[in-house]
Amino acid sequence: MATYSRGNHLVTNIDIVGMTEHHGLYIGNGEVIHLSRKGGGVLCTSLSYFSDGNSIRVKRQASNPSEAISRAKEYVGEEGYCLFSNNCEQFVNYCIKGKKSSNQVSNTAHGVAHGAARVGVLGGNVAKVAGSTLGVVTIASTGAKYVGEYIGLPDSVNTVVGSVGDLVAKPLESAVVGVFDTVGSTFDKLSDGEVLDAGAELIGGTINTVIDVVSAPIEVVGDVFSAIGSWFD
Protein backbone atom coordinates (compact mmCIF):
# COMPACT_ATOMS: atom_id res chain seq x y z
CA MET A 1 0.00 0.00 0.00
CA ALA A 2 1.34 3.43 -0.96
CA THR A 3 2.27 5.83 1.80
CA TYR A 4 2.05 9.60 1.62
CA SER A 5 3.50 12.51 3.54
CA ARG A 6 1.61 15.42 5.07
CA GLY A 7 1.48 18.20 2.52
CA ASN A 8 1.61 15.95 -0.54
CA HIS A 9 -0.28 17.33 -3.52
CA LEU A 10 -2.15 14.25 -4.71
CA VAL A 11 -3.64 13.64 -8.15
CA THR A 12 -5.97 10.92 -9.36
CA ASN A 13 -7.50 10.41 -12.81
CA ILE A 14 -11.25 10.02 -12.54
CA ASP A 15 -12.40 8.97 -16.01
CA ILE A 16 -11.91 5.80 -18.02
CA VAL A 17 -9.18 7.17 -20.29
CA GLY A 18 -7.49 9.16 -17.53
CA MET A 19 -7.97 12.59 -19.08
CA THR A 20 -9.73 14.24 -16.13
CA GLU A 21 -7.68 14.89 -13.00
CA HIS A 22 -8.83 15.39 -9.44
CA HIS A 23 -6.50 17.11 -6.97
CA GLY A 24 -6.27 17.00 -3.20
CA LEU A 25 -3.98 17.82 -0.28
CA TYR A 26 -2.92 14.97 1.97
CA ILE A 27 -3.15 15.97 5.65
CA GLY A 28 -2.09 12.69 7.28
CA ASN A 29 -3.91 9.76 8.91
CA GLY A 30 -5.27 8.62 5.54
CA GLU A 31 -7.21 11.86 4.99
CA VAL A 32 -7.35 14.26 2.06
CA ILE A 33 -8.83 17.74 1.81
CA HIS A 34 -10.14 18.46 -1.65
CA LEU A 35 -12.63 20.62 -3.50
CA SER A 36 -15.15 18.16 -4.84
CA ARG A 37 -17.65 18.99 -7.54
CA LYS A 38 -19.76 15.95 -6.73
CA GLY A 39 -19.55 16.72 -3.01
CA GLY A 40 -20.53 20.34 -3.56
CA GLY A 41 -17.56 21.96 -1.85
CA VAL A 42 -14.40 21.46 0.17
CA LEU A 43 -14.34 18.07 1.90
CA CYS A 44 -12.07 16.19 4.27
CA THR A 45 -12.35 12.54 3.27
CA SER A 46 -10.53 9.24 3.13
CA LEU A 47 -8.08 8.43 0.36
CA SER A 48 -10.51 5.91 -1.10
CA TYR A 49 -13.31 8.47 -1.32
CA PHE A 50 -10.93 10.98 -2.90
CA SER A 51 -9.69 8.57 -5.57
CA ASP A 52 -12.93 6.62 -6.06
CA GLY A 53 -10.83 3.50 -6.50
CA ASN A 54 -8.43 4.98 -9.06
CA SER A 55 -4.65 5.13 -8.69
CA ILE A 56 -3.10 8.09 -6.89
CA ARG A 57 0.20 9.82 -7.63
CA VAL A 58 2.12 12.53 -5.82
CA LYS A 59 2.44 15.67 -7.92
CA ARG A 60 4.70 17.51 -5.47
CA GLN A 61 5.34 18.28 -1.81
CA ALA A 62 4.31 21.55 -0.17
CA SER A 63 7.34 23.54 0.95
CA ASN A 64 5.50 24.37 4.18
CA PRO A 65 3.13 21.44 4.90
CA SER A 66 1.76 22.86 8.16
CA GLU A 67 0.82 26.16 6.55
CA ALA A 68 -0.76 24.47 3.53
CA ILE A 69 -2.79 22.10 5.71
CA SER A 70 -3.88 24.88 8.04
CA ARG A 71 -5.07 26.93 5.07
CA ALA A 72 -6.94 23.95 3.63
CA LYS A 73 -8.70 23.21 6.91
CA GLU A 74 -10.06 26.76 7.02
CA TYR A 75 -12.09 26.02 3.89
CA VAL A 76 -13.55 22.62 4.83
CA GLY A 77 -17.31 22.85 4.46
CA GLU A 78 -17.19 25.85 2.12
CA GLU A 79 -19.39 25.38 -0.93
CA GLY A 80 -18.83 26.50 -4.48
CA TYR A 81 -17.11 24.96 -7.50
CA CYS A 82 -16.29 26.56 -10.84
CA LEU A 83 -14.39 24.69 -13.52
CA PHE A 84 -12.57 27.83 -14.65
CA SER A 85 -12.00 29.89 -11.52
CA ASN A 86 -12.46 27.62 -8.50
CA ASN A 87 -11.60 24.03 -9.33
CA CYS A 88 -9.85 21.32 -7.33
CA GLU A 89 -6.38 22.03 -8.72
CA GLN A 90 -6.68 25.74 -8.07
CA PHE A 91 -7.76 25.00 -4.51
CA VAL A 92 -4.73 22.83 -3.74
CA ASN A 93 -2.32 25.29 -5.35
CA TYR A 94 -3.90 28.08 -3.32
CA CYS A 95 -3.34 26.08 -0.13
CA ILE A 96 0.30 25.43 -1.06
CA LYS A 97 1.33 28.71 -2.72
CA GLY A 98 -1.33 31.21 -1.65
CA LYS A 99 -2.49 31.70 -5.23
CA LYS A 100 -4.98 29.86 -7.40
CA SER A 101 -3.45 28.18 -10.42
CA SER A 102 -4.49 25.30 -12.66
CA ASN A 103 -2.52 23.70 -15.46
CA GLN A 104 -5.77 22.20 -16.71
CA VAL A 105 -7.20 25.70 -17.18
CA SER A 106 -4.02 27.31 -18.56
CA ASN A 107 -3.35 24.45 -20.99
CA THR A 108 -6.93 24.53 -22.26
CA ALA A 109 -6.98 28.33 -22.53
CA HIS A 110 -3.76 28.28 -24.54
CA GLY A 111 -5.04 25.55 -26.83
CA VAL A 112 -8.34 27.32 -27.50
CA ALA A 113 -6.66 30.70 -28.01
CA HIS A 114 -4.07 29.22 -30.36
CA GLY A 115 -6.73 27.46 -32.40
CA ALA A 116 -8.84 30.62 -32.62
CA ALA A 117 -5.79 32.63 -33.66
CA ARG A 118 -4.77 30.16 -36.36
CA VAL A 119 -8.20 30.31 -38.05
CA GLY A 120 -8.17 34.12 -38.00
CA VAL A 121 -10.81 34.74 -35.34
CA LEU A 122 -8.47 37.09 -33.45
CA GLY A 123 -7.30 38.97 -36.53
CA GLY A 124 -4.73 38.56 -39.27
CA ASN A 125 -1.72 39.77 -37.32
CA VAL A 126 -2.44 37.42 -34.44
CA ALA A 127 -2.91 34.57 -36.92
CA LYS A 128 0.55 35.26 -38.34
CA VAL A 129 2.11 35.17 -34.86
CA ALA A 130 0.30 31.91 -34.03
CA GLY A 131 1.54 30.35 -37.25
CA SER A 132 5.11 31.57 -36.81
CA THR A 133 7.94 29.53 -35.35
CA LEU A 134 7.40 31.21 -31.99
CA GLY A 135 3.71 30.37 -31.99
CA VAL A 136 4.36 26.74 -32.89
CA VAL A 137 7.06 26.40 -30.23
CA THR A 138 4.82 27.82 -27.49
CA ILE A 139 1.86 25.56 -28.25
CA ALA A 140 4.20 22.56 -28.63
CA SER A 141 5.63 23.35 -25.20
CA THR A 142 2.15 23.40 -23.67
CA GLY A 143 1.29 20.16 -25.45
CA ALA A 144 4.45 18.49 -24.18
CA LYS A 145 3.66 19.57 -20.61
CA TYR A 146 0.14 18.18 -20.96
CA VAL A 147 1.51 14.82 -22.11
CA GLY A 148 4.05 14.83 -19.29
CA GLU A 149 1.31 15.37 -16.73
CA TYR A 150 -0.82 12.68 -18.32
CA ILE A 151 1.91 10.05 -18.09
CA GLY A 152 2.94 11.18 -14.61
CA LEU A 153 6.35 12.77 -15.12
CA PRO A 154 7.71 14.68 -12.08
CA ASP A 155 6.17 18.11 -11.63
CA SER A 156 9.60 19.76 -11.79
CA VAL A 157 10.18 18.25 -15.25
CA ASN A 158 6.78 19.31 -16.55
CA THR A 159 7.34 22.83 -15.23
CA VAL A 160 10.53 23.22 -17.26
CA VAL A 161 9.16 21.48 -20.37
CA GLY A 162 6.08 23.70 -20.38
CA SER A 163 7.83 26.94 -19.45
CA VAL A 164 7.81 28.50 -22.93
CA GLY A 165 4.14 27.71 -23.40
CA ASP A 166 3.33 28.92 -19.89
CA LEU A 167 4.61 32.39 -20.78
CA VAL A 168 1.45 32.55 -22.88
CA ALA A 169 -0.80 30.09 -21.04
CA LYS A 170 -0.48 31.47 -17.51
CA PRO A 171 -1.39 35.08 -18.42
CA LEU A 172 -4.38 33.67 -20.29
CA GLU A 173 -5.37 31.68 -17.20
CA SER A 174 -5.03 34.78 -15.02
CA ALA A 175 -7.35 36.64 -17.39
CA VAL A 176 -9.92 33.84 -17.39
CA VAL A 177 -9.90 33.47 -13.60
CA GLY A 178 -9.99 37.23 -13.09
CA VAL A 179 -12.96 37.70 -15.40
CA PHE A 180 -14.96 34.88 -13.81
CA ASP A 181 -14.21 36.07 -10.27
CA THR A 182 -14.91 39.72 -11.05
CA VAL A 183 -18.14 39.08 -12.93
CA GLY A 184 -19.34 36.69 -10.24
CA SER A 185 -18.58 39.07 -7.36
CA THR A 186 -20.11 42.03 -9.20
CA PHE A 187 -23.26 40.08 -10.02
CA ASP A 188 -23.63 38.93 -6.40
CA LYS A 189 -23.47 42.53 -5.17
CA LEU A 190 -25.98 43.66 -7.77
CA SER A 191 -28.31 40.81 -6.81
CA ASP A 192 -28.20 42.05 -3.22
CA GLY A 193 -28.98 45.58 -4.36
CA GLU A 194 -25.54 46.88 -3.40
CA VAL A 195 -24.87 49.00 -6.48
CA LEU A 196 -21.92 50.97 -5.10
CA ASP A 197 -20.25 47.82 -3.80
CA ALA A 198 -20.83 46.17 -7.18
CA GLY A 199 -19.01 49.05 -8.86
CA ALA A 200 -16.14 48.71 -6.41
CA GLU A 201 -15.94 44.97 -7.10
CA LEU A 202 -15.86 45.59 -10.84
CA ILE A 203 -13.11 48.20 -10.64
CA GLY A 204 -11.05 46.37 -8.03
CA GLY A 205 -11.40 43.03 -9.80
CA THR A 206 -10.36 44.53 -13.13
CA ILE A 207 -7.26 46.12 -11.60
CA ASN A 208 -6.28 42.89 -9.84
CA THR A 209 -6.80 40.92 -13.04
CA VAL A 210 -4.49 43.23 -14.99
CA ILE A 211 -1.85 42.94 -12.26
CA ASP A 212 -2.12 39.13 -12.27
CA VAL A 213 -1.84 38.97 -16.06
CA VAL A 214 1.24 41.19 -16.11
CA SER A 215 2.95 39.36 -13.23
CA ALA A 216 2.18 35.85 -14.54
CA PRO A 217 5.31 35.58 -16.78
CA ILE A 218 7.52 36.60 -13.84
CA GLU A 219 5.99 33.84 -11.75
CA VAL A 220 6.58 31.35 -14.58
CA VAL A 221 10.28 32.22 -14.62
CA GLY A 222 10.45 31.89 -10.83
CA ASP A 223 8.77 28.48 -10.97
CA VAL A 224 11.28 27.31 -13.58
CA PHE A 225 14.26 28.29 -11.43
CA SER A 226 12.66 26.57 -8.42
CA ALA A 227 12.05 23.43 -10.48
CA ILE A 228 15.63 23.33 -11.75
CA GLY A 229 16.90 23.92 -8.23
CA SER A 230 14.91 20.94 -6.98
CA TRP A 231 16.84 18.67 -9.34
CA PHE A 232 19.96 19.27 -7.28
CA ASP A 233 18.42 18.97 -3.81
Classify the beta-strand content into a percent band: 5-15%
Total of DSSP H or I helical runs spanning 4+ residues? 9
| Overall pLDDT | 92
Q: How many strand elements?
A: 5
Strand order of the largest sheet: 4-3-2-1-5
Secondary structure category: alpha+beta
**Helicity level:** 55-70%
Provide tags for this entry:
alpha+beta, endopeptidase fold (from Nostoc punctiforme), five-stranded antiparallel beta sheet
Describe the protein's architecture and organization.
By secondary structure, the protein is α+β, with helices and mostly antiparallel strands. It has 2 domains: 8-82, endopeptidase domain like (from Nostoc punctiforme) (endopeptidase fold (from Nostoc punctiforme)), CATH 3.90.1720.10; 103-230, no CATH class. Helix content is 60%, strand content 14%. The protein has 9 helices and 5 strands. It has helices at 47-51, 65-74, 88-97, 103-118, 124-131, 133-151, 155-161, 163-191, 195-230, and strands spanning 8-13, 21-28, 31-36, 41-46, 56-61. A 5-stranded antiparallel beta sheet has the order 4-3-2-1-5. β1 and β2 (21-28) form a beta hairpin. The longest helix has 36 residues, at 195-230.
Topology:
Layout: E1 8-13, E2 21-28, E3 31-36, E4 41-46, H1 47-51, E5 56-61, H2 65-74, H3 88-97, H4 103-118, H5 124-131, H6 133-151, H7 155-161, H8 163-191, H9 195-230
Antiparallel strand pairs: 1-2, 1-5, 2-3, 3-4
Helix pairs in contact: 2-3, 4-5, 4-6, 4-8, 6-7, 6-8, 7-9, 8-9
